[in-house]
Write a structure and sequence with these properties.
Blueprint lengths: L2 H5 L2 H4 L12 E5 L2 E4 H32 L6 H13 L11 H7 L4 H20 L6 E9 L6 H19 L4 H8 L3 H5 L3 E6 L5 H9 L9 E3 L2 E10 L5 H26 L12
Antiparallel strand pairs: 1-2, 3-4, 3-6, 5-6
Helix pairs in contact: 3-6, 4-6, 6-11, 7-8
């Protein structure tokens, strides 16, 4: 089956929702026994109401957040995004089926794709609107892991970290100090580079120093989940332009959709009044 044949129903079905059948409408029959719309509707409430309701809740949370930021997505943009997603299904459609029938067999429909596509586009725009380059820094690190939980091993790591920091402050080369503290080939090859990190991910004291020091300067050793770490400031988000800024923005947006949605859902007052299936 050609791509054109599969996509022909798309232009129509993306803009037309199916008409709700009357309760006594016969939707199927088995050996002459009718299955009516009312039977299916009762089952849908029991089987899928919470799932569908949850999608509408998510969509409404996103819509309200977008309105507060004056962020909008047109129906045309949502339709195109939904169509693009459907086109990705073409290779999975069995011979003899259309995209519409295949989606139905997978629990999807044109209206569901539209809702999800619009929500995803709005989420991206919300994330982009809340992007603040100044809250990001690019760093490299030298880490010191205590050999065990013993205080003596922790004290030894603190001493090693302080010694390394003093060498750097005295003019020692970053690469030389790094090599003297680790034999990890990946860390040495990367020269300790971590990349772009949000300031909020650092311990409070490291955050304070990273906002005060200049590029190529160092923080004092701080304790993190990885042990004791010294950070070298390689770039400040608020000072970059061009390709560097685009790289940072793409890095942010890659994980922002999930993080933004989690934050919005946590902050929203959501009340559910679905019928109790146990009653």
């Amino acid at each position: 089956m050609s791509l054109l044949t599969l996509l022909l129903p798309l232009a129509v079905t993306m803009t037309q929702a199916p008409t709700k059948p009357a309760p006594d409408k016969v939707l199927a029959s088995v050996n002459g026994v009718s299955i009516r719309a009312s039977q299916i509707e009762d089952a849908l409430w029991d089987w899928r109401a919470f799932e569908v309701g949850q999608e509408f809740i998510v969509a409404e949370v996103i819509k309200q957040a977008a309105q507060k930021l004056s962020v909008f997505v047109t129906d045309a943009e949502a339709t195109k995004a939904a169509e693009d997603q459907m086109k990705l299904l073409v290779g999975r459609v069995p011979e003899g089926q259309t995209i519409s029938t295949f989606m139905q067999s997978q629990g999807y429909s044109k209206s569901r794709f539209l809702i999800q596509a619009k929500s995803q586009l709005l989420l991206d725009k919300i994330a982009e609107a809340t992007f603040d380059a100044k809250s990001w820094v690019q760093v490299s690190t030298i880490a010191f892991r205590p050999k065990s939980e013993l205080t003596s091993d922790l004290a030894a790591s603190i001493k090693d970290a302080d010694t390394a920091f003093n060498k750097l402050k005295a003019g020692g080369k970053w690469t030389d100090v790094l090599k003297s503290t680790t034999d990890d080939p990946k860390m040495i090859e990367a020269n300790g580079n971590v990349g772009w990190v949000p300031l909020e991910m650092f311990p409070a004291k490291a955050q304070e120093e990273l906002q005060k020091i200049k590029v190529n300067e160092y923080t004092h050793p701080v304790q993190t989940q990885y042990g004791l770490q010294i950070f070298r400031l390689d770039a400040k988000g608020g000072e970059i332009k061009g390709d560097q800024l685009r790289e940072l923005k793409n890095r942010y947006l890659a994980g922002a959709r999930t993080n933004t949605l989690r934050k919005l859902m946590t902050e929203a007052k959501i009340e559910r009044f679905f019928p109790d299936a146990d009653k």
